[in-house]
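Sanity check

After download, print the first record. It should look like this:
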Amino acid sequence: MRTIKKVISAVTASALSLTMAASSMVGSLPVTVTAADKTAIEIVDDMGLGWNLGNTFDAWNVTWTKETWTGWGNDMPSADLFKALKASGISSVRIPVTWYQHTNSSTFDIDDDYLARIKTVVDYARDADMYVIINMHWDWESKGSLWLNKGLDALPQFNAMWKEIATYFKSYDEHLVFEDMNEVAWQSNIYGPYTDDSYNTLNKLNSEFVSNVRATGGNNANRLLLLAGANTDLDNTCNSKFVVPNDNMVAVSIHYYRPSTFTVAEPGASYGYSSTWGSTAEVNAVYNDFSRMKSFFVDKGVPVILGESGVANAGKFNRDKESIRKFIKTVDSTAMNTSGITAFLWDDSGHGDLNYFNRNTLEWFDPEIGNIIHEVSGGTGEGPTYQTKNRVTLKFKDLETDEGGYVIDLTPYGAQDATLTSVIINGAVKGGDFVGYGLGFEAAKDGTAGSWCSETVQLTSSDTSASAVLDGKGEDDKGNTYAYELAMKYLQVQQWWADGDATCDLDSITLVFDKEISVVDTGEEDPTDPDPTEPATDPATDPATEPTTEPVTVEPKDWDVWAGYQYAGNKLGKKYGVMVDGSGTYTIEIPEVGTTMAGDMILYLDSKINIYDYAINEESDGLKDGTLDIKIDSIKVDGKEITYTPSKNCVTTDDKGQNLRINIVNPYFGDGIEDIDPNITVEEGMSITFTIKMDKEGSTGDISYGDVDCDGKVGILDVITLNKNLMVNEAITDEGRKNADVDNSGSIDEVDALNILKAVVELTTLPV
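Expected structure tokens:
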């Protein structure tokens, strides 16, 4: 019996039938049918940890003895074997059975003595108070020579044999489970993506299996039936093409050897090999896989039995013992803590590649594995619990790295029919003002699948959080726009730019989806989660929240304006600045920079003024609309004023439009101030005097904070509109600009975009 289950199914047994009836995957189902007053999920929960009687009755192509069950080295199992397993914490046994060598190829009748021998072993396990699964194992094999490889042409034999097996055992109670097939595929590359023909064949055989077993009556009318997944592969089975028959007492079989490079690969395998396992990312991958199976099947009322799991541990595989132990503990404890999923260890018992329990001494080959099984089965093993929410927060330290960046696997969330809509990155910028990141992903770009697309996000020294919206509209490096449809395969995070030598200590990334999904509860508070205790306010009904209609005049204060220089090769020199506290004239002194030519430097004047708060007057020498004017009055080199001609092309901005930059000398791009001699030698230093005029007058009228697109409501489109304005200078109205300034700072920036996004996903409320 399963002694602990931290996670209870989100719906009760009586509600499961309603959930399933609403599911397009399982079709319209009748009222829930139970075996011994248990639902399918409750039976699987009761199974506890399972074990395989491997390389015994599943042996095939054994020609040297009629006792085929001994042909692969193991003896006929004894009753004591199952008693010992039960005492060690195993509550269920799977007995793989290959039938064809004991079947009449013309009549399809199974030998009576073979059925009787299977019954003997089933009774041994039942006498030990264990659940038992019997299946049809190597009647299909990868080389395609056996009868079940005929696919639908084998249907008459398939139906006849299962009717005979089901009839033979129909008096057994719910502790006996029938599994129709093992790892089956009807295609040339059996380990590749499942083909439509294979899905069609599998779905038909699964459906016929259920119908024929039910028709035999007795306890088979309500017996739990285990359906072969698509090659029992998790990715192929968690697919809409895999159809679960219209029956409430069925489960799905998936085998868990992930990653194969650690679990089954031999040293030198073409697809990779690893002798160790257990990083945080690898453990999280297990949790994500279980979340995926839970969402795809269990939450719809269909339990999952991991009919095989484990690690090839024979000597030739040369694997780390601690890694093997951690893998088994992780998978088993995760199964024990996930309602509707259980796991069975595959065991050849010294006569194959996976050797765990010694059938001669009735002891575990590795006593520590035995301790893990006993501990986990007793409910003291660690395992995850789950939450249903529209986001997941991941620590960067736990993510895989690739090509200087981080890679996030999106497939567990895509398998739950979720689409990534935005990300929130948290980190601390130091040594400069900003660090920018590219978010790369696969998408259908302008309808062409398999394209690489990207969005960008920037963290600043003043804000440890920044967001990006994946709105389906992108821009390439030439400024050409395109539409994309995100493929939920991966998200790559790479640093693309920085303020000089600025670095960022990345902490976490939150993925926000368009629907709620099942995610692992880390036990840590997620700051991006909505606060259910914070009451929402309604401006229409709450007079205290009526917006002011008084006009406001905002003159930003404390703008840090500085000058700096950058040598050829993009090596950043020092920056020198002054604090601007209003309109006026200021001078920045750049002390000795070493004997060099002005033409060897890119010299610039920079500020933290959000220039998109002001119109660009193309005929001016800078940016001004009557309220903002920044211009250079004089430039001195070694104390002597030099002559120059202002150029309207000297004004540039960063990608976010958050800084005003005037290039003074930039011979590499030809956009510096004109008629300045780039060969001037700078020995003692420079000084730059500039005048700044600034005044921003807000308009009168109601302020609808967050309603950037002025459609009368606050939603994700407002976040997209503001980000497009900040990133590519796409115009928004004066009213929209006013509404976007949710922190009332007098300017709009990424902080406003993040706050609006948080409001949309109910993390905060906006001022009214």
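If your output differs, re-run the checksum step. Summary of this record's structure: The chain has 15 helices and 34 strands.
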